Amino acid sequence: MDIIAFEKKLKNLLRKSPETNRQEIVQNLKVTFTPSLDLGDYSTNLLFLLKKYAPEKEEIILNLIKKWEGVYFKKIEILPNGFINFYLSDLILIKNLRDLAKNIRKYFSSNKGFGRKVNIDFVSANPTGPLTLGNGRSLVLGNALAEILKLNNFKVTKEYFVNDRGNQIRTLGESIKAVIFNLPMKENYYRGDYIIEVAEKLKNKISEKDKDEDVGRKAGEIILENYIKPVINDFGVKYDVFYYESSLYKKDLPQKILKIFNQKDLISEKEGALWLNLTKLGEIKDEVLIKKDGEATYFFSDILYHYEKIKIRKFKYVILIVGADHLDHVRRLKKALSILGIKESQIKPIVYQLVNIKKGESFVRMSKRKGIFITLKDLMDEIGLAPIVIYFLKTSPERHLIIDLELAKKESEENPAWYLLYAYVRLNQILLKAKKLGYKERKIDYQKMAAELINKEIYKDLVREVVVIKNLFLIIANNFSVHLLGEELIKFAKLIHNFYEKERILTIPLSERKLNFVKILKDTLGFLFDIINLPKLEKM
Question: How many CA atoms lie within 13 A of 320 on its CB side?
Fold first, then answer.
């Protein structure tokens, strides 16, 4: 029984009694993982709620729950602190191991999404420079979330929105022209080696009279193709769509949206600009849609873009992975879209904080405009792909992240990336040694294998952890908290290392069932690595 199904089962039990079918109990009931497998598999706050809202029903409900002991759970433990812990039964664990052995991908899959269309917009960095560390955080989180949603039968489109118009593109064009034609470098111009390199590629293709935005668009395309996409490819990420902002203005969509706003009496003209009167909807300020020079604002582009995704391409949800500085923008965008019949719940923002780099005792100071920054490519060259993926994945995006360069290079348990990669290597080493001793892989009776091995705690705990990760995929599909997977993979690695160090596998004669278990364990870990695009090393 998965954690979501179990929570539903508990709530259904409460709904059958008028005394416990109360909003305060049913809505606040939670089933969570325990902090440690020593405390069981699932835990619930049910007892707290019963004591507070229906103490007279406490004994009756607990007696009904205890009937599940021996069926779903080996033990149900009521703790003095008020929590109830549930230990999965051996029968449930045997079934999980058997199903895992038959088909790993199917084991981790569900129909939770019912084929609903989801658009994940992540990274979408302006093509004005190389990808930054913050962009990398978005890249890792977005791709892992997309793969988990696919496993849960969501139809996922991974999309990159290319800002190829507006002030930043115009400034990029001015910066390039300043380099090529030896013009004064203004304070707001882009700098850095990449600007010189892009200017070199364009010097025989543009003139000083060319429009700044046209030059910026050409430069932006070079940056996208030479500095952004190659790094995305290095991370193993494949986008389904690169959507260009300029394409929004090649049809009648802008006029259509302005007409709707006008019909609702939410458009006004002030100082030559066209405004959306969001103050009429409770916001503290209005937003400019069309500036006095006739150019559309980024806010208007965002309205068009999300209308196009939800109303024209028919996505049920749009997930936006954005930096913390975009949070207020997203809130106001939701309000504007609600005017167009788009529910605020259809826009799902995931906000991430800044990434800082620590080298020794000091932090590296960065400024993209001044050309003083560590790019995502720089960081990958310095510490490799795996530490970046693990550090970005295991920390909640809402927390500031510090990457210690010296720690990220250590080959020890202190470095979570090394520790995780080494778990896979160790499993591989067992199988390589077994083959030298004559082991040949073949299909066996997985039911008998599971029934024999589940009797030993060291095997049981590994299967219980796999069940946790399976459940975690359902939770992530529900609330998008993809960072939880990073933490859980490290727990899984710890159990694998403990298993490697304590369990004798390469006995004479060889145990076919034990070696098949190791193979399943290795393939499972490899499958999880594929989800987050982590390299599978055969040796270290």
Answer: 23
d(CA 472, CA 95): 18
DSSP 361-393: TEEPP-BTTTTB---HHHHHHHH-HHHHHHHHH
Cβ–Cβ under 8 Å, residues 302 and 163: no
300 touches 165 (CB < 8 A): no
For residue 73, the SS3 value is strand
pLDDT of 362 higher than 50? yes
- What are the residues whose beta carbons fall under 8 Å from the beta carbon of 358, sequence distance 6 or more? 364, 402, 403, 404, 405
- pLDDT tens sequence across 451-506: 999 999 999 999 999 999 999 999 999 999 999 999 999 999 999 999 999 999 99
Provide the pairing of β-strand 287-290 with 84-88: unpaired
What is the second-level CATH architecture of the domain 416-532?
Answer: Orthogonal Bundle (1.10)
CA distances (Å), origin 8, targets 1, 45, 151, 469: 11, 14, 21, 19
d(CA 36, CA 56): 32
Distance CA 365, CA 356 (A): 8
Give SS3 for 71. Answer: coil
Fill in the amino acid letter for 195.
Answer: I
Q: Which residue is listed with tokens 């364009």?
A: 202
Helix (H), strand (E), coil (C) string for 225-267:
HHHHHHHHHHCCCCCCEEEEHHHHHCCCHHHHHHHHHHHCCCE
The phi and psi torsions of 454 (rounded to 5 degrees) equal: -65, -20
Choose between 264 and 364: higher pLDDT.
264
Distance CA 152, CA 149 (A): 5
Give the containing element (helix H, strand E) for 77: strand 73-78
For the chain, which residues make up each domain, given as ranges? Answer: 3-88, 117-166+230-352, 357-408, 416-532
Q: What phi, psi does 126 have (nearest 5°)?
A: -60, 135
Separation of alpha carbons 485 and 84, rounded Å: 24
Q: Do domains 117-166+230-352 and 416-532 have the same CATH topology?
A: no
- pLDDT at res. 499: 97
pLDDT in tens, 210-261: 999 999 999 999 999 999 999 999 999 999 999 999 999 999 999 999 999 9
* CB-CB contact of 65 with 76 (8 Å): yes
For residue 162 the two structure tokens come to 């290319």
CATH class of 3-88: alpha beta
CB atoms within 10 A of CB 303: 27
Q: Which residues contact 344 (CB under 8 A, 6 or more apart)?
A: 334, 335, 337, 338
Structure tokens at 313: 């391409």
Q: What architecture is domain 117-166+230-352?
A: 3-Layer(aba) Sandwich (3.40)
Q: Please report, rounded to a whole number, the percentage of residues in the chain having pLDDT higher than 70.
A: 98
Enter the tokens of residue 147.
């793969």
Matching residue, tokens 């693990």: 390
C-beta separation of 316 from 119 below 8 A: no
